[in-house]
Amino acid sequence: MPETTREQRRAQQRRRRAEPTHGSTETEQSHGGGHAVEHIVFGDDEVDVIIGRRSTVKNIRFSLAVDKEADFLDLDYFAGTRVGHAWVIITYPDGREDSYGFWPDLRAGGGIDWETFWRDVPGEVRHPDTSHRNTVTAMHTVMIDTEQLVRAEEFAASMASVSYNVLTSQCTTFARAMFEHVIGQPAPSAGLLIDDPSDLAETLSELNAERSLSPLEQPRASRDRKKK
Predict the structure, then answer these.
(1) Distance (Å, rounded) from C-alpha 129 to C-alpha 123?
(2) Strand locations in 33-169, DSSP E?
(3) Who contacts 48 (Cβ-Cβ below 8 Å, separation ≥6)?
(4) Cα(151)–Cα(222) distance, rounded to whole angstroms?
(5) What is the mean pLDDT of the chain?
(6) CB 87 within 8 A of CB 129
(7) Which of 55, 177, 210, 213 makes the best surface tag, with the fewest CB within 10 Å?
(8) What is the C-alpha separation between 152 and 88, in angstroms, rounded?
């Protein structure tokens, strides 16, 4: 298939946002009803956000997702080859997914020199962020409504021009900050001194274990079933 251009992606994104399938209630409009749509500039992109009478029904899945590749103290981690990734996945009632993640902006010279990894480099919000979707090792999901969905969109837009820093402003700090902005509660811990995917994955796995769930939030078999 031919590669989708940035302009095509913008158009698809706008059409997708305008479709009345996100669980929000209909808004009475002078032009005949439907959803009101707010246009937001998102870095180089433009997105439409549903506004108007926003639903308070929490039927949208907001998930912290982690791909743990190496422990924080492993040599591979500090060599920059197996850092892992943390991001946010949003799943609508009809099953469609959206996602947000924070990365060094390679197009703007944001590549990381691991000999000087503590320096700021240009950053970018990737939307969608799917590069680690097939290698998720842990997730933590909270149900949200359309009002909170708008807050997620606004937070992502506010981060579009923020610098990336391996120590203080990276994928894990972004995902946790979005969680706190949207949910209004402290995000799961991702380490004592530095937020990192490895520690966040451990925390999410522990939270899920307390609910008798696997790291990927699947129900664990009961002891009785295991014996059988």
Answers:
(1) 14
(2) 36-42, 45-51, 60-67, 85-91, 97-104, 123-126, 138-144
(3) 13, 14, 17, 18, 37, 38, 39, 40
(4) 38
(5) 78
(6) yes
(7) 210
(8) 10
Residue type (1 letter), 23:
G
Lookup result for tokens 């009632």: 93
Continuous segment of H or E residues that includes residue 197: helix 197-210
**pLDDT tens, residue by residue, 68-82:** 986 656 565 555 556
pTM recorded for the entire structure: 0.72
Q: How many CB atoms lie within 10 A of CB 35?
A: 23
CA distance 136 to 69: 10
* All structural domains of the chain with their residue ranges: 56-218
Residue 82 burial class via C-beta count within 10 angstroms: exposed 0-12, middle 13-18, buried 19 and up: middle
Cα–Cα distance measured from residue 190 to residue 180, given in angstroms and rounded to the nearest whole number:
13
